[in-house]
Amino acid sequence: MNRRDLLRASLAGTALSGLAAPALRAQGTNQGANQGFDHTIRIIVPNAPGGTSDILARLIAPDLTRILGQTVVIENRAGAAGNIGADAVAKSTPDGHTLLLMDVSTLAINPTLFPRMPFDVQKDLAPVSMLIYAPYLLATKSALPVRDAASFAAYAKANPGLNVANAGVGSLTHLTSAELGTFLGGHFTQVPYRGGAPALVAVTTGEADLIVNGATATIPFVKNNQMRGIAVSGEHRLEGLPEVPTFKELGWPMADSGTWQGIMVQGNTPKPLVERLHAALREVVTVPTIAARFKELGAEPRTDGPEAFREWLGRSTTTFGRIVQANNIKAE
């Protein structure tokens, strides 16, 4: 190597060192902030692709990857009302790298619905954070001779046995409509479908009289006059249907029913890892594109910590278990 080549190599090495030092410092800082996360993180969704949980998982994965410094991948493990996917997390290594994302109301219902559970929800799974809440909308077929909540309540009482489409036996849509039927004195006839989408079709075609379903999916049918909106769960009226009152305004039960999407990990996961995951999720929901998408879905960010989540789960397990038993609901 001649003198000119040697000088050139020396200058190149100096330049690379100058570039590498800040990068190494940044990497060191990132590793310190995310200590304990050192390989691929899996989000297990116990439902088929395309549902709310799957959409949420794929929405948050890129920013969770950025924040935690590890690749986040999605695995769909559907079946047994969510028990297959949840069991995989319950039996995973307790290192915070395997997450469960699902409608956690299912985890509050299943212990009563299924006589033999492959895992203990309270012991084998640890709450990390709720992610979103989205309300339910009660809607009727357009041909039903009702105009509003008052006329619907009167009609249901005078015509017991109205057919209500639900998203599956033991789903929270099933439990909510069963409780409402009892409260209104109508005792609805439950007609289960394989998910909310076919249940909605049943109401639009007149095969079923009414539905209690996720507001996001149901609003378009109401706006197109294929259904009539009667009442909505949650704390607030819907922006898209401001004339539709809330269950709470009407004094109806199940006022906080709806889609409660949350994230859990294996039950023995160390507390610092759970807290780091919770902090990461709190950061994720503030990302403008994600916040905007939540609003489009009619969903509210809900990132209360692990303890609030655990209290909700315990309270809901008692409430939903009572409804399952009172209505003699059996798993298919």
From TrEMBL:
Q: Which Gene3D superfamilies match?
A: Bordetella uptake gene, domain 1 (3.40.190.150), Periplasmic binding protein-like II (3.40.190.10)
Ubl conjugation keyword on record: no
**What stretches pass through the bilayer?**
none
**Keywords assigned:** Signal
Secretion signal, residue range per the UniProt entry:
1-20
A Pfam family annotated for this chain is: TctC
Q: What is this protein called?
A: Tripartite tricarboxylate transporter substrate binding protein
Q: Which family does it belong to?
A: Belongs to the UPF0065 (bug) family.
